Amino acid sequence: MNFPLENEDMSLIKKFELEASRIPWVVSLAQWIPRYPTPQPIVDFLIEKIKKWETNRYSIVPWLPQLRDSIAARYFEKYNIEIDPEKNITITAWAIEAISSFLLATLFPEDEVILIDPTYASYRWCVLTARWKPISAPLDDNRDLNIETIKKLITSKTKAIIFPNPNNPTGSIFSLDKIKKLLEITKEKNIYVVIDEVYDEFIYDNEIFQSAIIFFKSYPNLVLVNSWSKTFGMTWWRIWYIIAEERLNKEIIKVHDNLLTCAPVHSQWAAISTFEIYDEWTKKIKKQLQERRDYTIKQLNQLKDFIDFQIPKAAYFVFPKFNYTDNDYEECINILHKARLALVPGSGFWNRWKGHFRICFWRDFDDLKEWLERLKKYFWK
Ligand SMILES: Cc1ncc(COP(=O)(O)O)c(C=O)c1O
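A: This is the predicted complex of the input protein with pyridoxal-5'-phosphate.
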């Protein structure tokens, strides 16, 4: 018997984490795993809800209204944009479920989805598992959106363009000007532009990030996804949301309902409570992250004989290139076994990224210091 995905490998990020977990004393700069507990006010709020037995049933299919209202209220407060909580928002359990619900709701067989390249590896898997065709749209040399390239890749089968802003693994921020151009090109062709803004709070130096939500009223082909996963270190709660125009949202809800019934109810309550501490919390983590980003860049600057890299403007990754080999996989395996340090090979982000690797710098400071020392020792051996 053949399996449709048997020629595809599992995500290299997860593969390296798994391999690393089998080797003693390995430290990992591969997958980001929150290094701090969920903020106490969120936990306290949830404990109260559990004690009152408010988490012990499905949410009214498929959400808690209070959560959708809070999301809409935050966008209104921050961007003065009105989103109808009932007509435009679906609460999902995680990123892939949000993206997959969108894909399953919109695509017909043979449709194509353009993904920027490099990008979050799981989008490609979402498209593949739904049996549709991912098309790679390389970023330009400045790691920015290449509108001309995307334009050339659009065919009569293109249904959507998906990317995160800010981007993983490059840490690029795509400007609203470019996003508007993309929405303009795609609007008439009924192509959705799906933007994942999960790193919206991780912006360095004086860079400015603004949500594409400001285009929501003028461009019904805009779809946004976001989550509390990164901002509040809540990856383990598995809770996301998707914002889409009414007709599309109805279709997404149908798919979501059949996949999952509803996102975990305790996680929905936890997400509601984040809005009480949002600004105070994000201010705190921004400072910590800026320190880590600056420290990491300073250390990597000492390795310029071995690697080239661009300074990330956002998110918490650096995506350097070995300047002595294109075999990123073999080199990351060597580093894993000899330096006991887990990184992610660039080819995990699509084949054209051979020779690159990804470092995640959101770690405890002492650990970050130790891990970068290991990397330096490896290169200077
Ligand atoms: C852009 C982007 N979206 C989604 C995710 C996944 O988030 P979650 O694990 O909460 O589903 C990641 C994880 O690295 C990511 O980089």
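The domain at 57-276 is CATH 3.40.640.10 (Aspartate Aminotransferase; domain 2). Residues 94-95, 120, 164, 168, 196, 198, 227, 229, 235 surround pyridoxal-5'-phosphate (CB under 6 Å).
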